[in-house]
Amino acid sequence: MLARLIVVLALCAALIPAARAQESSIQVLAPPSDAPVAGEAAVGADGEPVPAAEAAPPPPCGTQPITLARMSWPSSAILAEIHARLLKANFGCDVRVQETDMAAAASSMGANGQPAVVPELWIARIADVWNAATKAQKVRLAGTTYAEATFEGWFVPDYVVNQWPDITTIEGLKAHASAFALNGSGKGRFISCPVDWGCAVVNRNMLRANGLDGLFEVVEPANRFELDTLIAEAQSRKEPIVFYYWQPNAILSQFSFKPIELGAYNKDNFTCLGRIACALPLPTGFSPDPVNIAVSEWVFLDAPKVAAYFGRARMPLPLMNGMLQTLSVGGTPESVAEVFIKDHEDVWRPWLGVAAAEPAKPQ
Questions:
Q1: pLDDT 10s digits, 165-214
Q2: Does the CA dihedral 349-354-360-361 come out positive or negative?
Q3: Measured between alpha carbons, how far is 81 from 307 in angstroms, rounded to an integer?
Q4: Do 140 and 174 belong together in one domain?
Q5: Residue 238: which CATH number?
Q6: 121 versus 20: which is more confidently predicted?
Q7: Greatest pairwise CA separation for the chain in angstroms
């Protein structure tokens, strides 16, 4: 059973988080304000107003195919397939899913407006490419991909919380640290990320900042597979552990965990935690990461209903974690998307601009 869990965990590919000593400078422009305002007369090619009777409403999807970027990691593939189905069914769009990567997609959007939409763009990872496309006024941010903004954290299993309800606080960790010790070592285990990842530096400094470095022994696995193995082994034995992880990810849905309350994010404090030589580490929560839905400029101008849809399309992280778990045990992005649409109308109907209890109206 444990071997099967480990194999399942290894299949759950996700972006590897990296601590940022300094946040990337990301340029953001507001949606264009020169689009026709509702109620104003349309203007013809000669500059003269077009009578209302002659002004046909623009097609809801514009005059080009709505191409959705599908990246190589599972959450991006699921989102692309979900949006493709909803746009086709509710707006009648000619939708196409295009496999690509973040840098290529942002560069192509800046050059020729395709793909039309990137449903999951981790902007800080490609800040230079994104800034160039934004400067050329070819792309815009339609909205945020997820309902939550912070994707990293510390976690403890539910069975630990059931025994010590205050364990999800820093003071609770201090009070019960000895209960996490194994083999008479006197220190609890804190399972961090691989030593060559930026989060390993952050975790060590964060333990110091909260006065936990003398109470917990840091375990830094060699790779992602070993990290998942350590968590799966502890879970199968019901051992008390504290560990670092990130979202969206299947493991946080496959097992039941609760996050540790690390406090509010402080930019200056977190910047220091990302340095190996942080002289005075101070407490802070993890940095929020900009994960956005990027849309080509022409979508805002020619298909404003589609742009508005993506402005509302925020996916709850726990729901995505569950879909990734389904995908890891034999589903496909297409089948997972279809189940989401069938079972979670309360989530996606508001994306269309209608209340969850209302029937969707043809656009």
A1: 999 999 999 999 888 887 666 788 899 999 999 999 999 999 999 999 99
A2: negative
A3: 17
A4: no
A5: 3.40.190.100
A6: 121
A7: 85
Query: What's the confidence (pLDDT) of residue 274?
Result: 95
Please report the sign of the dihedral spanned by the C-alpha atoms of residue 271, residue 274, residue 277, residue 279.
positive
Q: What is the dihedral of CA 121, 122, 125, 130, to 10 degrees?
A: 40
Listed residues 273, 300, 330: the one ending a domain: 273
| 184 belongs to a structural domain | yes
Domain-ending residue, one of 273, 303, 332:
273
**Cα separation of 56 and 144, whole Å?**
32
168 and 259 within one domain: yes
Distance from CA of residue 278 to its chain's centroid? Answer: 28
> What domain count does the chain have?
2
Structural domain boundaries enclosing 179: 150-273
Q: Which residue has the tokens 């726990």?
A: 318
Express each pLDDT in 286-308 by its tens digit: 999 889 999 999 999 999 999 99
Q: Do residues 169 and 308 lie in contact, with contact meaning Cβ atoms separated by under 8 Å?
A: no
CA 233 to chain centre: 27
User: Does one domain contain both 118 and 205?
Assistant: no
Look at residue 282 and tell me if it is in a domain: no
Average pLDDT over residues 249-259: 90
Confidence grade of residue 86 (pLDDT, cut at 50, 70, 90): very high
Give start and end residues of each alpha helix (H) in the chain.
2-10, 74-91, 102-112, 127-135, 158-163, 170-176, 198-209, 224-237, 251-254, 267-273, 297-302, 304-312, 317-328, 333-343, 345-348
Query: What pLDDT score was predicted for residue 63?
Result: 85
Is 215 in the same domain as 318? no
Choose the weakest-confidence range: 35-49, 84-98, 110-124, 222-236: 35-49
